[in-house]
Amino acid sequence: MAEMKLLSEAAPSGIQERPPDPCVFVIFGASGDLTKRLLMPAIYNLACDGFLPHNFVIIGTAKTEMDHESFREQMSKDIRQFTTRDFNSQVWDEFVKNLYYITGSFDDPSMYQQLKQLLNEVDAKHNTEGNYLFYLAVPPIVFGLISSQLGIAGLTSEDKGWSRLIIEKPFGHDLESAVTLNRGLQEHWLEHQIWRIDHYLGKETVQNILAFRFANGIFEPLWNRHYVDHIQLTVAEKVGVEGRGNFYERSGVLRDMIQNHMLQMLAYVAMDSPSSFHADDIRNGKVAVLKAMHPMTPEEVIRNAVRGQYSGGTMDGNIVLGYREEPDVAKDSRTETFAAIKLYIDNWRWAGVPLYLRSGKRLPIRRTEIAIQFKRAPEVLFRDTPVERLEANQLLLHIQPDQGIELVFEAKVPGPTMQLQTVRMHFEYQEAFHAARGTGYETLLYDCMSGDPTLFSRSDLVETAWRVAQPILDVWSSLPPRDFPNYPAGTWGPKEASELIEPDGRGWRRL
Ligand code: BG6
Questions:
Q1: pLDDT band at residue 17, thresholds of 50, 70 and 90?
Q2: How far, CA to CA in Å, does 359 sit from each of 123, 235, 368?
Q3: Would you call 261 a catalytic residue per the annotation?
Q4: With contact defined as beta carbons under 8 Å apart, do 277 and 12 qualify?
Q5: What does the alpha-carbon distance between residue 193 and residue 168 come to, in Å, rounded to a whole number?
Q6: 126, 230, 261, 398: which is the annotated catalytic residue?
Q7: Is the distance from the beta carbon of residue 168 to the nearest atom of ligand 1 less than 6 Å?
Q8: Is the minimum distance from the CB of 198 to ligand 1 under 6 angstroms?
Q9: pTM for the whole thing?
Q10: Which domains are delineated in the chain?
């Protein structure tokens, strides 16, 4: 039952889950990292929990030469290495029979004809009813190519069943390319067929933000400028670029983390109550709050956005390379591996409440946390007591690796005099639910197969998120940084990050 919960939390309470339709899951890039590390383990977890349709087939495709049998063997090896739970050979042996593979190049139209033929055969053999899910686990450069080739081959047609396309991030490189990509996709696909995935929305703790806010009566009345002093959102990573220098050089943390994962989380934290938990009501709410973000002028970017790049340092007693020494990174790279920004939302609920966001690689710890800091209580009552200062209350949403919620408040220290101490009330997911560990992709894949787009981004959402990031990208590209690298690996970013928040009489949380 605990594992049932893992998924049922994705579906709004009161709405019945229905089993996903029979379908064929086609993976482009089936010999790559994403497939073996995340997609296959997630699908396997769904199989273990009985959440896959009875008639379910996977077709992998990539350039790497393999036939059906060698693909099955490779996946059987990989799953043992990357599964997030104990390996159950009974489930896997049943499942692996339905794996197929096509070797081919994404720019070769005959590959799509081969795929079409195999889909017909598989439909006839496994009763998959003409429902196809195409997952692009490939570099963004080929998103447009594959999606249009699928269209040309007639595989976007929904005459027999449904046809859906899942697109990974990064969705575009900037606003203009995101708009172009959307237009290109829409030449062959209808909007309801395009599923833009963001793996942060698969995290239970992120999904719980809305449940926490709107299923409880006590927090929402305080969730506004009258009671909230500011909000801090931190995504700290300990890792460096992990061999992805080539990709990261063209990205940087603003594009890699802030424009997508962090703005998605922020939208959940700041949106107004949707009129229902239906996909479009939630997605409209997210777009509305991102649209209300104050557009930064170039002067504001200079004041309110800070960037950094790590140099070599010591972490956990080991010497680590600086960013510029990583493979495939330019010796004079200007790519930011850290950013801190201050944003405002120009609406009735949040006017004047700063939102401080920071994210970086090679920071001292791995932690994602959202902190809502409330306004301080008036000190009048404590004037004639030994209490010198009242601390502000904080509500902490621990997203990962700790998963929980914490309320920080003041309590009286036992004894005859009025002394206060900051204490914490703590809820932990693991303690409360004992859910099996997953990859974070289970709910997203299940939702796509069962036709629930709530957690996927519509075209207007990704474009609106780019609109928030674009003024910063523009200023940063026109004014290259002069002082990179400016923080040693294993520290909390450049000193300018503190200078962004401290003049406001606030400080970054010490994590
Ligand atoms: C990816 C980024 O989207 O998210 C990576 O491209 C980053 O650079 C990763 O490391 C972080 O994901 P998570 O789930 O480990 O926080």
A1: low
A2: 45, 5, 9
A3: yes
A4: yes
A5: 14
A6: 261
A7: no
A8: no
A9: 0.94
A10: 23-168 (3.40.50.720), 202-504 (3.30.360.10)
